[in-house]
């Protein structure tokens, strides 16, 4: 691995471009001392360990300084504790975190609306926005149809089960693939007043009897896969005995991935206790440095797409950038 000094572009704005860049870095590097224990694993009381990319979201979990916020996990995976249970909010709905397998990268959720009732009624679909790093894999789906004026008609290969305990002419349909069964949707058009789709764990057997088993099935929960684009960066942080997290400030409105310095591990190189690491050219370009293109050109220093840039702390408004070829 070779190192090279990257010089500012030869332009009329070069005299102020880099001071602004390092000022912005210093803003995102000041704030929480993560060695205080805020990034340590947490247990709400039921044995499920909460750690990166999940994080314990209480009133003190977000470090609010004058210019930045720091969290110890993905912004959309904050966990709150209630009655000793870890809860996750997704799309305005609440799910209990039943289990997390950090090695396999899976999280098992239970819809809070379906728990504690011998005959639960599904009230909403699962909503996963593109920003949430969760993917539905190895799941089946149950389509619930409520308040039907008559039994919907489906093709012979679809089995519709009456959900008699609900008492409102409701039915359930099992669907084992991710594609929407449009024949099922059309089958209830004008017949049923409402429908809800609930993900469930894929069954060991081919088919369930939803009339007798749907309560057990929906209360078991369903797995989602963690799909983190920053996984490689996080492994590099952890290899330095640092902590993975996210920061944002007044300049950057969205949270950005960062390595959080661990004072207790003795690896702190920033007086503030936090240092964004492996700043990419795309991050620099977001700061609006004139004359410097993310992938070279524009009179600035050239770098290939896979080049990594590491910030080295120096006196205020001074610094060096190391360009590491990968």
Automatic annotation (TrEMBL):
What Gene Ontology terms describe what this protein does at the molecular function level? polysaccharide binding
Its source organism is: Spirodela intermedia (Intermediate duckweed)
**What keywords were assigned to this record?**
Glycoprotein, Signal
Membrane-topology descriptor: Single-pass membrane protein
Report the GO terms under cellular component. Answer: membrane
* Ranges for domain Wall-associated receptor kinase C-terminal: 188-262
Instruction: List residues of the Wall-associated receptor kinase galacturonan-binding domain.
Output: 39-111
State the signal peptide span.
1-31
* Subcellular location per the Swiss-Prot or TrEMBL entry: Membrane
Give the domain of life: Eukaryota
Q: Please indicate if the UniProt record lists Repressor as a keyword.
A: no
**Name of the protein described by the UniProt record:** Uncharacterized protein
Q: Does the keyword Lyase apply?
A: no
